[in-house]
C-alpha cells in the first residue's frame, strides 16, 4: 500500500507516466457531457468511509437530500460523521438545519468565526484518509452544475498534511456551537432570507417563472416545435402531434402556433372543465384581443360565437352541440391530453369537424390500452421532448428520487401477496412517517400525493395519518370530480398534508404545489411510473424541488423502476443494473438515490425478470408499429431507442421467424435463407467488429463481383478500421465460418456467406441465390445496417473496447484466433500467439458449481486484482511461466459480477502480474482434498473507471 501511495504522488507531482492507483490526486470538475460530478465523488467516498467530517459554509436542502440514502446506509452500519457549517451571509435557511437534526448519525455545529467560508470534505477510509478541498459547498448547483474546482487527495494517518487538517478541524469544532432545536427556533425568529436581484428576460416562459414577463416569447423548446409545425403544414399536412412532458408549456406552445398559423376560428378541447379558464387566459396573453373574442363551451357556459372557443369534450361531443357548428367552422382545432382520444366522444368530434389543421398534445402517447395515437395524427410527430430533455432545459422542477426499503414484518419484506392488514397496521404507518420525515420535502411543510395499490389501503392509511397528526384525505375513482377538486384545493391551501389515491391523478391533474410524491405500490408499468412522478414536476414558487419517495418491496416488477427513471426501454438487463447502481444519467440538479437493501431488491427483480418473453416483445413491437405506421425492422428499434434489436432478432432463429410468429412478415423466405439470417443475427448484428459488416455490405452491393485482398484492406482503411493482415484473415474466417467449431459449427452447417476465389473473395453461390429473393435481401441489409449502428459503440482502431461486454467466443475472434474454442475449454483463461486472456466471475455465490475449488478472485482497488490459476498448478506450470515473462504477452482481463449477468464479461484492460506476488499454495476442494494453485496480483496498466469498479466491487458483498 505504501508503494501505491508513493506511486500516486510521483504520478501527480513528478512524472505523469508513472503507474497510478486509487490514491491518485485528482482534480474534480463538474462535466455534464461525461456525466461526471463532484456529487458522485462525495457519494463514493461516503459509501466506503469509516467516519467523515464536512466543513462547509453553505448547505441547501437539495444538496443534503442527495446524500441522505448514503447517510441512512451508514447509520445501519453504525458509522457517524460531523458537519461544521455557519450562518454566514444568512445563506443557510432554517429548513436545512431542521433536516440536519433528523439525521441520527450526523452531529452538527455552527461556527462562530466571522466570514466562515470553508469547503472541505474529510473521509476516514480503511487504512488511509481522503479529503476533498475546493470551491464546492453542499448545494446541488455546486455538486452537479456549477463550474467548480476541487482537489481530492489521500494520505496515511501519520502524514503531516492530514495531521494539520485534523487538528485544525478539531479546534474549529470545539469552538463551534452545537446545533439544537432551541438554536433553530431562535434562528427562525431572526432569519431574514437574502434576496438576489434576478434579471427578467423576455425569453422566459411565464409557466416556468415566478412572475410573467411583460412580453412573452417562445422558449427554446417552443421555438423548435413552432418551426417544425410550420414546416409540417407547408408540406400540406392536416394534422400534427406534439409529445411534451407535463409542465413544459404545451398550452403556450399551442397559442404561439395559433399566432403563426393565423386561423380565423379556433377550437381548444380539454377533458376537464377546470382547465378551461387557465387555457383561455394563457391564449389571451399570447394573442391579445378583446375579451369577447374568447369564449367557454361547457356545462355552465355556451359562448359559441367566440373566435377562440375553449370547450370540454363532454359538452362539444354531444350531437345537439355539434350540430350548431358547420363542419368547417373551425380552421384550427387543438386537443389537449390527446392520448384520451380513443374514447368515442373524441371520435365523434374528430369525425365531424374538418379543420385546416388539427394539433394533438400529450405527454404519454404510448398507451397501455393499445389505442394508436400516432395513426390518428397521420404519424406526423411535430415535436417530442421527454423527461430527461425537459430537465436538461430546466423546464421542470428538479426532483430527488429516493428508492427506500418498505416495511419488514416478521423478517418478510412487503410483496404483491402481502395481506392488507399488514399494509395498514400501526407499525407500518409509524415506519412510513419516519421515512417521510427523514427524506422530507422542500420547505419541510409537506403537500404530498400518495399512490396506493388498493382502495381500502388508501382509505385506512389516510385515517391513520390523520390520527398521528398529519391531516390527510383519500380519493379513488368512486369520488366525484367536485370532491377531487375540493381535496386538491385543501392540499394547496395547506389544510391537509397528504392525499392518498388509487387510480386517480396518474395524469391530467395539475397540482403545482405538490412537493412530495410517495409511491406505496408495485410499479405496474414504466409509463404509469413516469405519469405519477410527473404529478409533482410542474414548477411553482412555493418549492425548490420535489421529493419522490418510492417504498420498494419484494416486487417482481421492480426492474421497471430504473427503466422508467432512465428512459431506457431496451430491456437490456445489463443497462438496468448499471442504471440502478450508477444514476449519473439524470440531468440538472435532480438526483436518484437507492438505499442499499432497496437496490438489492431491484437487482433481484432484474435477475428474475424475463425481459425477452414473447408477450413483452410483442408489446414493444406493437408500440413501435403504432408510432411508424408500418412493420418496424431491426434498424427502427435501434434508431428509435426502443427495445434492443438483439432481443427480437435472437428470440427465435431470426427476426423473420419472430415476424412469422406474430403474423407480420411481409414476404416469405426459404430455410436456407433463414439460416443466413440466423448466423448474421448472432455473429454480426451485435456490431462488435465493423469489418465483417463493411465487407459483406460491399459484396452485396455488387454481388456479381469478387474483391481482392488488397481491395479489402483499402476498403477497411477508407472506413478508418483495422486493416492489418491478421485482422483481414480473421474477418474472412468469420464470414466463411471456418472460425467456428463444436456446436456453433454444427448449428451453422458450413453455410458460408463468402468463398475464397483466385481473385480474392466473393459471395458464396448459395448466398447469391438467396439474394434473388428481395425480401431476404431487405432483411439481410437490415441486419447489416443495424450492426453498423451498434458498431459505433466500439473502437475502430483497437480490437477490443474497454468496458464493453464480450462473450469468450467474441474475445477470441476479435483477437484473431484461428479457431473458436469451446467455452468450457477456455474456462478461466487461455492463450495464443502473444495474447493471454483471463475471464473472472467475481461473485460466485455460495452454491457455485462451476469449479471444484472456491477461487477467491477479487478486485483489490482500481488498479489491482487478486487472481488464482486453475488447479492443480505449480510455479512450473506452462501458464505460470508465461505470466512470469509478462513482457512477451498482452494479458487482458474480462470480468463479470456474477453468473446472473449471463455469458458476457466486461473488458477491464491489460494487466501485468506483480512478479514478487506470484506464490504457490494449497487450497481445499469441495470434497476436502487439497490441490496446488498459484496466486498473484495483477496490475492494470490503466486503472478501472471508478463507477464500473464500484459496480463490480459491490457485487462481492
TrEMBL record:
One of its GO terms (cellular component) is cytosol. It holds the Pfam family DUF3427. One of its GO terms (molecular function) is hydrolase activity. Residues 432-598 form the Helicase C-terminal domain. InterPro entries: DUF3427 (IPR021835), DUF8090 (IPR058403), Helicase/UvrB_N (IPR006935), Helicase_ATP-bd (IPR014001), Helicase_C-like (IPR001650), Helicase_Restrict-Modif_Enz (IPR050742), P-loop_NTPase (IPR027417), PLD-like_dom (IPR025202). It comes from the Bacteria. CDD domains: DEXHc_RE_I_III_res (cd18032), PLDc_N_DEXD_b2 (cd09204), SF2_C_EcoAI-like (cd18799). Residues 231-383 form the Helicase ATP-binding domain. This is PLD-like domain-containing protein. It comes from Desemzia incerta. The lineage of its organism: Bacteria, Bacillati, Bacillota, Bacilli, Lactobacillales.
Amino acid at each position: 500500500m505504501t508503494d501505491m501511495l508513493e506511486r500516486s504522488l510521483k504520478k501527480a507531482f513528478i512524472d505523469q507516466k508513472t503507474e497510478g492507483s486509487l490514491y491518485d490526486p485528482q482534480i474534480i470538475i463538474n462535466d455534464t457531457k461525461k456525466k461526471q460530478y463532484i456529487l458522485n465523488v462525495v457519494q463514493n467516498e461516503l459509501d466506503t468511509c469509516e467516519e467523515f467530517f464536512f466543513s462547509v459554509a453553505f448547505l441547501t436542502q437539495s444538496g443534503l437530500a442527495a446524500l441522505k440514502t448514503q447517510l441512512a446506509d451508514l447509520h445501519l452500519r453504525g458509522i457517524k460523521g460531523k458537519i461544521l457549517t455557519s450562518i454566514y451571509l444568512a445563506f443557510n435557511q432554517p429548513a436545512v438545519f431542521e433536516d440536519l437534526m433528523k439525521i441520527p448519525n450526523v452531529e452538527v455545529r455552527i461556527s462562530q468565526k466571522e466570514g466562515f467560508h470553508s469547503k472541505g470534505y474529510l473521509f476516514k477510509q480503511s487504512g488511509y484518509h481522503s479529503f476533498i478541498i475546493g470551491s464546492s459547498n453542499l448545494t446541488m448547483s455546486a455538486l452537479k452544475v456549477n463550474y467548480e474546482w476541487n482537489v481530492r487527495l489521500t494520505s496515511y494517518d501519520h502524514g503531516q498534511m492530514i495531521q494539520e487538517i485534523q487538528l485544525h478541524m478539531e479546534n474549529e469544532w470545539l469552538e463551534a456551537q452545537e446545533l439544537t432545536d432551541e438554536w433553530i427556533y431562535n434562528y427562525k425568529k431572526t432569519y431574514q432570507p437574502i434576496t438576489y436581484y434576478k434579471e427578467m428576460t423576455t425569453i422566459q416562459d411565464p409557466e416556468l417563472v415566478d412572475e410573467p414577463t411583460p412580453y412573452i416569447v417562445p422558449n427554446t423548446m417552443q421555438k423548435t416545435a413552432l418551426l417544425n409545425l410550420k414546416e409540417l403544414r407547408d408540406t400540406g399536412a392536416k394534422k400534427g402531434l406534439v409529445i411534451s412532458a407535463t409542465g413544459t408549456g404545451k398550452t403556450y406552445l399551442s397559442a404561439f402556433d395559433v399566432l403563426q398559423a393565423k386561423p380565423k376560428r379556433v377550437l381548444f378541447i380539454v377533458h376537464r372543465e377546470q382547465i378551461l379558464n387557465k387555457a383561455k387566459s394563457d391564449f389571451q396573453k399570447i394573442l391579445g384581443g378583446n375579451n369577447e373574442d374568447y369564449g367557454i363551451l361547457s356545462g355552465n357556459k355556451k359562448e359559441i360565437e367566440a373566435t377562440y372557443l375553449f370547450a370540454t369534450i363532454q359538452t362539444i361531443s354531444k350531437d345537439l352541440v355539434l350540430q350548431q357548428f358547420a363542419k368547417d367552422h373551425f380552421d384550427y382545432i387543438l386537443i389537449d391530453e390527446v392520448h384520451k382520444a380513443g374514447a368515442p366522444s373524441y371520435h365523434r368530434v374528430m369525425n365531424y369537424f374538418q379543420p385546416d389543421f388539427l394539433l394533438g398534445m400529450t405527454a404519454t402517447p404510448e398507451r397501455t390500452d393499445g389505442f394508436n395515437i400516432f395513426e390518428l395524427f397521420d404519424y406526423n410527430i411535430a415535436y417530442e421532448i421527454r423527461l430527461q430533455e425537459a430537465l436538461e432545459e430546466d423546464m421542470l422542477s428538479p426532483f430527488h428520487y429516493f428508492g427506500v426499503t418498505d416495511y419488514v414484518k416478521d423478517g418478510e419484506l412487503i410483496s404483491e401477496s402481502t395481506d392488507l392488514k399488514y399494509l395498514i397496521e400501526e407499525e407500518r404507518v409509524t415506519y412510513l412517517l419516519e421515512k417521510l420525515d427523514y427524506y422530507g420535502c422542500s420547505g419541510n411543510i409537506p403537500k404530498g400525493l400518495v399512490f396506493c395499490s388498493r382502495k381500502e389501503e388508501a382509505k385506512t392509511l389516510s385515517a391513520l395519518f390523520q390520527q398521528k397528526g398529519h391531516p390527510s384525505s383519500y380519493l379513488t375513482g368512486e369520488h366525484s370530480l367536485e370532491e377531487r377538486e375540493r381535496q386538491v384545493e385543501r392540499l394547496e391551501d395547506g389544510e391537509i398534508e397528504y392525499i392518498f389515491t388509487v387510480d386517480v391523478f396518474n395524469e391530467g391533474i395539475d397540482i403545482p404545489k405538490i412537493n412530495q410524491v410517495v409511491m406505496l405500490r408495485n410499479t405496474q408499468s414504466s409509463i404509469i411510473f413516469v405519469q405519477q412522478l410527473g404529478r409533482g414536476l410542474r414548477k411553482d414558487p412555493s418549492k425548490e424541488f420535489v421529493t419522490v419517495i418510492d417504498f420498494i418491496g419484494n416486487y417482481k416488477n421492480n426492474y421497471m423502476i430504473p427503466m422508467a427513471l432512465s428512459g431506457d426501454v431496451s430491456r437490456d438487463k445489463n443497462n438496468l443494473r448499471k442504471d440502478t447502481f450508477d444514476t449519473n444519467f439524470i440531468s440538472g440538479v435532480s438526483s436518484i438515490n437507492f438505499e442499499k437493501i432497496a437496490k438489492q431488491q431491484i437487482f433481484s427483480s432484474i435477475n428474475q425478470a424475463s425481459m425477452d418473453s414473447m408477450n413483452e416483445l410483442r408489446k414493444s413491437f406493437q408500440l413501435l408499429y403504432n408510432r411508424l405506421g408500418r412493420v418496424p425492422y431491426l434498424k427502427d428499434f435501434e434508431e428509435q431507442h426502443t427495445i434492443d434489436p438483439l432481443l427480437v432478432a435472437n428470440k427465435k432463429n431470426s427476426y423473420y421467424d419472430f415476424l412469422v410468429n406474430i403474423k407480420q412478415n411481409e414476404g416469405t423466405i426459404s430455410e436456407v435463407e433463414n439460416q443466413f439470417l440466423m448466423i448474421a443475427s448472432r455473429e454480426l448484428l451485435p456490431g462488435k467488429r465493423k469489418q465483417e459488416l463493411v465487407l459483406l455490405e460491399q459484396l452485396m452491393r455488387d454481388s456479381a463481383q469478387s474483391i481482392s485482398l488488397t481491395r479489402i484492406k483499402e476498403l477497411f482503411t477508407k472506413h478508418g478500421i483495422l486493416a492489418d493482415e491478421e485482422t483481414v484473415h480473421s474477418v474472412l474466417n468469420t464470414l466463411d465460418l471456418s472460425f467456428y467449431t463444436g456446436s456453433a459449427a454444427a448449428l451453422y452447417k458450413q453455410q458460408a456467406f463468402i468463398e475464397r476465389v483466385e481473385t480474392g473473395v466473393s459471395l458464396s453461390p448459395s448466398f447469391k441465390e438467396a439474394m434473388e429473393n428481395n425480401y431476404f435481401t431487405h432483411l439481410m441489409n437490415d441486419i447489416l445496417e443495424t450492426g453498423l449502428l451498434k458498431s459505433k459503440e466500439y473502437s475502430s482502431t483497437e480490437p477490443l473496447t474497454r468496458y464493453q461486454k464480450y462473450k469468450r467466443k467474441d474475445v477470441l475472434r476479435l483477437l484473431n484466433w484461428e479457431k473458436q474454442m469451446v467455452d468450457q475449454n477456455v474456462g478461466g483463461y487461455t492463450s495464443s500467439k502473444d495474447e493471454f486472456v483471463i475471464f473472472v466471475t467475481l461473485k460466485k455465490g455460495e452454491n457455485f458449481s462451476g469449479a471444484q475449488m472456491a477461487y477467491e478472485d477479487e478486485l483489490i482497488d482500481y488498479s489491482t486484482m487478486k487472481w488464482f490459476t486453475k488447479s492443480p498448478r505449480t510455479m512450473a506450470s506452462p501458464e505460470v511461466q508465461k505470466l512470469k515473462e509478462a513482457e512477451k504477452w498482452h494479458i487482458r482481463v474480462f470480468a463479470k459480477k456474477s453468473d446472473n449477468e449471463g455469458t458476457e464479461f466486461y473488458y477491464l484492460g491489460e494487466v501485468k502480474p506483480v512478479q514478487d506476488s506470484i506464490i504457490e499454495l494449497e487450497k481445499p476442494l469441495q470434497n476436502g482434498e487439497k490441490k496446488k494453485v498459484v496466486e498473484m496480483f495483477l496490475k492494470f496498466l490503466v486503472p478501472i473507471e471508478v463507477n464500473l469498479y464500484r459496480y463490480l466491487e459491490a457485487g462481492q458483498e
